[in-house]
Specification:
Elements lengths: L1 H14 L15 E5 L4 H7 L2 E3 L4 E3 L8 E4 L13 H16 L3 E5 L11 H18 L2 E4 L21 H6 L2 E7 L7 E8 L6
Parallel strand pairs: 1-4, 1-5, 5-6
Antiparallel strand pairs: 2-3, 7-8
Helix pairs in contact: 3-4
Length: about 200
């Protein structure tokens, strides 16, 4: 449910409308949603209704104009003197400048770096994201996977996909867990906070 919730958050901020059960403190503004998981058609199918009679998808959800979804061009050329990560970071910065957005959502961090499990790989990535955040005065929400875990145990920072270095760089972190008593129930748990009290 990470991507579903992230899109809800993006739509809430871009439209200025609260998600039921959550207090919206941000003003209505532009949001860039970097979708490195789904292609355009896959994303579309999540937000429309299938008409079984005519075997077509219609009744598409209309996102707010402040919501901009960005996906990678699989046929894009990477300059010879740049790594994939550097080229991607450059593209992210150019997109931020073009849209003048202050809220950035990255789905999913594993796409940004090939060695996410290693400290030497995650450290430069987090430094670069922090630099981008500070340079453009951004709020950044980054999605990450969690490895398979024992559902009877509480979810903690140790379940974050990748190096603990990631956890050291972030200001706050919350996780979506599956109930150990009912597989259809999910919960949200804050597992790190830097500026406010844990909720």
């Amino acid at each position: 449910g990470k991507s579903i919730l992230a899109v809800q958050i993006a739509e809430s901020i871009s439209s200025g409308k609260e998600i039921k059960g959550f207090k919206l403190e941000a003003k209505r503004q532009k949001v860039l949603y970097f979708d490195f998981e789904l292609n355009k058609k896959q994303f579309e199918l999540r937000y429309c209704v299938k008409n079984e009679t005519e075997k077509v998808f219609d009744n598409h959800y209309l996102f707010d104009d402040n919501f901009s979804r960005v996906e990678i061009n699989p046929n894009g050329d990477i300059p010879d003197n740049m790594s994939f990560e550097d080229c991607l970071n450059k593209s992210i910065e150019e997109t931020i400048q073009k849209h003048n957005a202050k809220v950035l959502i990255i789905d999913n961090i594993t796409f940004l770096i090939s060695e996410i499990e290693k400290s030497k790989g995650s450290l430069p990535l987090m430094r670069k994201l922090k630099e981008i955040k500070n340079n453009y005065n951004l709020s950044i929400l980054i999605l990450a996977h969690t490895p398979k875990r024992d559902l009877s145990q509480p979810i903690t920072q140790n379940q974050i996909h990748g190096s603990k270095m990631l956890f050291n760089f972030i200001d706050s972190c919350f996780a979506i867990g599956q109930s150990s008593t009912d597989k259809d129930i999910r919960y949200i748990k804050q597992i790190k906070e830097r500026n406010k009290a844990k909720k």
